[in-house]
Amino acid sequence: MNTSDITSRAGESAVRVTRVALTQWQAVADDLVVGHGDLSTRPDGRLFVSIDAWDRDAVFDRIAEAILAKVRRPLHTVVDEGDTHLLSCWERAGFTVARREWEYLVPTDPKLTGLHAVRPPSGITIVSAGRAAEHPLREVDRAIRDEVGASVGWQEMPVEILGGGADTVVDPSKYVVAADSQRYVGLARVVRVTRLPRIGLIAVRADHRRRGTATAMLSHILGGLHERGITTAAAEVKESNTPATALFEGVGARRVNSNLELVLR
What we know:
Bact_Acetyltransf; 2 domains; 13 strands; acyltransferase activity, transferring groups other than amino-acyl groups; 13-stranded mixed sheet; GNAT_dom; Aminopeptidase; 6 helices; alpha+beta
């Protein structure tokens, strides 16, 4: 494929940024790789960019310039709010804050969460991770995404979505589901992308909300982790998602960090 090069100066070293693949750029100075940029498309169609540059002020700008000259907008990225230096780099490239997500640490001990007495709503069964039937799992995932997309929009759901393309259930074994006598009505995804299990998503069909189904799934997840000797899980909640904030803070979750989703339109 054709490459796209931008050459500039960083101190005394010339920096060349080359598009080495459809979604990858690489910056080289003095025959050494000094940074790279990557693109990824989320299942909802949003395009995300990430840049890792050893010299953020010089190389970062060159990589950003090369990428922005070639890709469509809007373009999104995610930054730890505490990394003010990286945040300033993205803002210098024209990105602005679109949303904030709180990062929580969630205790698993039922004595701390208060979930020891929680039971599923009448007629609802919680199915453990790895035991959900794949076809109905994909059906409820698509139904919930369609419901959210028709209301607030799926962009309001958690930033962290694993995989790509239209198939958003990448690994069915990671899902806990809630089922009534006819179908699955809720799902929760637990992954391990760091040293801590991460609750990446809890969602319930519109006609089963506000009955305690989400709380029952959370209780099942945390109780299972506690039985395995895991004392803490991680979770992310959009700042404006009041029900989710109440759910996690209600079980003693502690807010420890925040991530910003930035956008260039």
